[in-house]
Amino acid sequence: MSKEFGVFYTPKFLIDFIINKLPIKNIKKQSVNVLEPSAGDGRFIDHLLRKNPRIVVDASLVEINKESASLLEDKFINQEKIRVINSDFLYYESTKKFDVIVGNPPYISKKHLTRNQIERCREILSAASIPSLADKNIWTSFIVRCTSMLEDNGVMALVLPFDLLQVKFGSYIQSYLTSNFSRIEIYTSNKLAFDMAEQDTIILLAFKNSKRKGLFLNDLEFDKNKKNKLLHHTADKCRRLISQDENIKWSSLTLSDYELNFLTRLAGKLKSIGSYATSRPGIVTAANSFFIVSKRKIEEYSLQKYVSPIIQKSQFFQNNIVFNESDFNELVNSNKPSYFIDLSGYIKNSSERVEDYLKLGESLELHKRYKCQRRKNWYVVPKVPPGEGFFFKRCNEYPKLHKNNFEILTTDAAYNLVVNEGYNIESLIYSFYNPLTLCFAELYGRYYGGGVLELVPNEFRRLPIPYKEISSQLFLDFSNKFKNKANIDEILLSSGRSVLSDIIEEHEFIEIIKIYKKLIQRRLKS
Questions:
Q1: DSSP letter assigned to residue 445
Q2: How many CB atoms lie within 10 A of CB 281?
Q3: Sheet strand arrangement including 307-311
Q4: Which of the 8 DSSP states describes residue 383?
Q5: What digits encode the pLDDT tens for the residues 199-218?
Q6: CA distances in angstroms from 317 to 43, 105, 241, 267, 454, listed in the order given
Q7: Closest to 81 measured CA to CA, from 50, 58, 47, 56
Q8: Predicted confidence (pLDDT) per residue in 219-278, tens digit
Q9: How many helices and strands in the chain, by DSSP H and E?
């Protein structure tokens, strides 16, 4: 396996599932034309032949790696209707169309592609009227090329990253697929298909023509014997919901049509967080390990005059929702990097020890980094003032909105909030911790194979929130619950119920709690 080069061989249980789904027997032709665009060791075609021994399969296997292509030729040496093409699929041309295109395209980030490959990906996407933003990974171009090679009644079956369902550039591919296929089936799973790659995957089946049209999402559960069962099936009504709210991702379709309609109807009654507060990312240093340091490093280089308190990671502050001076002192005493080196007021050559530190940075070639080069002095980092509150864009169990009592700075791992006139930060934080808002954090955000949830700035600002004005004493009682390690379920059932009580009935609250738990279980695979 190679994460850098996108080589992750598909597990047998997934291949079995995909081959069983292909409508090979329904193709009324003497032979079925099949293409595997990134053949690897040929396991898809191998399984296809074993499952359909009486059907003539005319297959083209495209494989970029010369050694793998040679092994494929040896493997299928007695199969005269199987051709191995040693080529980069981005450049592969075929004189015929295919009834079936099946496989597991490579997942290669743009940073690992050659310049020619990047340009070719952009050509492919541009020809399909897809913005160049979708060139962030090679699999997007594979989808477009495969689609162009299908027969009018063809079917495409691919193993793809979960990113298709949730990242911004994936939305362009979603639109492309719905424009080119009459029926789309997506299968998600409770199991990481590629455990070593930490890559959450989906199965895409796309039919050019189908009597039963629409977008269908299915949630599968694989047991320890790799047997699967269908947990849930979402039908075509969900497409209309997505068109109504561009923030709702295909990954949200693990909910039923009723559940999505229910949530969006309630959210329509609310304003967004951006209506109550302005938010912006924190400080971008371009070299955190150099500009954010521990007390020990400050003392070593006599930098005391040039530092400000900062919190770098959400892991450094887990339980409380109010950040106080005592929390900062705890970070310092545990030798966490908690000081931001601010050299905006430093006079060049005025301190021998500071100059030594700058020389250390230059020996690491920090001054040659892109963001550092764009500064007047590479070591003067633009400062972002602290907010009344802050929100870390990534979380594990659930997203957290904090009050900043210490005016601590943050890195761009967090968004700094300043409430608008007429509102207050304590009421905003109290209001945030309700199951409806947290449901939409799950719907709007994206998550990684390990279950880490991320909200980009626009997604965070657009979260619906039922703002409720509260007293300082109520907020103190509320924050003490976190300090005493109350779990999120307790918070949602008490404070969350209070926040939502003015806009929903009790039975609706119970329904939201159920949906929230369903979304959490999907992300954490619990």
A1: S
A2: 16
A3: 292-293, 339-341, 307-311, 409-410
A4: P
A5: 578 899 999 998 888 888 87
A6: 47, 40, 37, 30, 17
A7: 58
A8: 777 665 556 555 555 555 555 555 456 666 777 767 877 888 899 899 999 999 999 999
A9: 21, 23
